[in-house]
Here is the input.
Amino acid sequence: MKNVLALVSTLCAAAPLLLVADTGLTDREQQIIAASKLPAPARVVHAGKLAATPPMGWNSYDAFGDNVVEAEVLANARYVADKMRPVGWDTVVVDYCWYDPGAHDNNRMGRVGAALVADANGRLLPATNRFPSAVNGHGFQPLADAVHALGLKFGIHVMRGIPRQTVAANLPIAGSTYTAADAANTNDQCAWCPDMFGVHGNAAGQAWYDSCVKLWASWGVDYIKVDDLSRPYHTAEVELIRHAIDQSGRAIVFSTSPGETPVVDAGHVARNANLWRVSDDFWDGWKYLDHEFTLAARWHNFAGPGHWPDADMLPVGHLSVNHRSVGNDRYTQFTRDEQLTLLSFWYLLPSPLMVGANLPDNDAWTLALLTSPEVIAVNQDALGAPAQPQPNAPTTAEVWVRPLADQSVAVGFFNRTTVPLQLQVPWESLGLTNVHRVRDLWLRQDLENGKAFTGELPPHGSRLFKVN
Here is the structure.
């Protein structure tokens, strides 16, 4: 335990503070910040089914690209535990290339032939120059223990398949009579990452994934994001990974990436994975956010407890710290109205929630976006019913409605245009009759007029209500 506590305290190498003043806030934005600090209602904790509600956590990629280091992970884990866990955020994920000592390249293909850290059976291990607690073959167990000590869950990103260097050495597969050559499909190569070959859907391929998941489970991993799996969709490997997790003896959330996952495979992915990406990598530009409405409309029938379409990470706050491999060092390029639209839509769908910023650099506005309890409660609603678009709503705004467990509904109005929209939408036009209460979830205030929503949506803006 002493080592765990010491590891939690090792924050000295974290990124420097990015100072972003909360200047130019509108009255409504100031009210949203104030409302987020009000006492939160009791939070329902969902037990039983894995991913009964969409997972909520932090992922290292948007802030640190392919070369996050241990101290940066710990700094963000501490922030999640201190400021976000009370409203449901509980997972910390180490993303791309943690096994590469020299990772930090805008073009990953430039790392062809890089010497990756691995064990005697060719399974990848954390690079100890970046994750010093992994020395002496400890892998991610000390870091996972530190994250668990904060009351959080620990996750990792992995690439589909078997390392090419493991195949070149034809190493034995742990716990089996097979070797890497028996499992590897050398004709199956990722178009954008040179580290891996695909795996055959045979007994040797199953043995490879069994050995990897057994190792990750021994570290205490609670969540795995498997990349290069959803596009193109690798049916056999999805099934191999599902079986390996089921045999591991540990409850592990299984997330596939990247998107767009083919809708034709919706039934298969929903049976085998807990989360799957509906989009390609999502970044802080309006064109990406606008496209998510189109994608979400294709997937709303497939969401439910234990299996959630994933609209990807939340690029709010401080991104690409020190000009990492994911672009220029910047604060999110979304306007505040766009940020509200982003969070409102992800909360409403509901999508899994993985924020990608360097959290210790958050300003009060960003923290409010991530910790306003009544909007988060919509995302985490126990019923698990998806939001539905309302194409016949009498308005030029986009309207989505989601039934909730207490027999109320959440209603989101979204302006996808570049001009303000004046709205007057009777609740009856959305099929909502006998309305007694309408609550603005961001302001945590009831509206006076219970018969219709009347108001203005700014360009790319939104409003989110609970109606009962």
